[in-house]
């Protein structure tokens, strides 16, 4: 399972709710020992500066501790951008900036819950 961390990437209430629900269900209701094959990874929320330095965050992310690191290829990054552009109602002015500068379209670091 992959979800957001407690910071919800941008503090978005829905993202935080997903993390809270997954954490509650995994830790309280459906506790599964790690050896059983079920893992939960949470996407690391980074500070504002790192969030918008695009590919420059690859080196920083590589040097910092994490359980998984995904570095997208140029083709994968373009595919993600095309997907975002398909949702015109969601593509507000600040998301245009996101498409240009966000590290999440290039690199994602995750931690085990």
Shape: globular
What is the number of independent domains?
A: 2
Unreliable stretches (pLDDT < 50, length at least 5) are none
Q: DSSP strand (E) fraction? A: 5-15%
| Distance from first to last alpha carbon | 10 Å
The major sheet is characterized as:
4 strands, mixed
What structural category do the secondary elements indicate? alpha+beta
> Helical percent range?
40-55%
Instruction: Count every helix, treating DSSP H or I runs of 4 or more residues as helices.
Output: 6
Mean pLDDT: 91
Order of helices and strands: EHHEHHEHHE
EC number: 3.5.1.89
Family: Belongs to the PIGL family.
Enzyme class: hydrolase
GO molecular function, one term: N-acetylglucosaminylphosphatidylinositol deacetylase activity
Description:
The protein is an alpha+beta fold and 113 residues long. Helix content is 47%, strand content 14%. It contains six helices and four strands; from the N terminus they run E-H-H-E-H-H-E-H-H-E. The protein has two domains: 1-45, no CATH class; 46-108, no CATH class. A four-stranded mixed beta sheet has the order 1-2-4-3. It has helices spanning 8-11, 13-29, 48-51, 57-63, 74-85, 93-101, and strands spanning 2-4, 41-43, 68-71, 107-112. This is N-acetylglucosaminylphosphatidylinositol deacetylase. InterPro entries: GlcNAc_PI_deacetylase-related, LmbE-like_dom_sf. Belongs to the PIGL family. One of its GO terms (cellular component) is membrane.
């Amino acid at each position: 399972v992959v979800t957001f961390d407690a910071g919800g990437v941008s503090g978005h209430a829905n993202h935080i709710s997903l993390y809270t629900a997954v954490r509650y269900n995994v830790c309280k209701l459906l506790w599964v020992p790690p050896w059983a094959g079920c893992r939960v990874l949470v996407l690391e929320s980074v500070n504002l500066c790192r969030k918008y330095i695009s590919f420059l965050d690859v080196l920083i992310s590589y040097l910092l501790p994490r359980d998984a690191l995904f570095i997208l290829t140029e083709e994968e990054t373009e595919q993600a951008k095309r997907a975002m552009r398909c949702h015109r109602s969601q593509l507000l002015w600040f998301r245009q900036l996101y498409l240009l500068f966000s590290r999440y379209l290039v690199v994602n670091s995750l931690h085990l819950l």
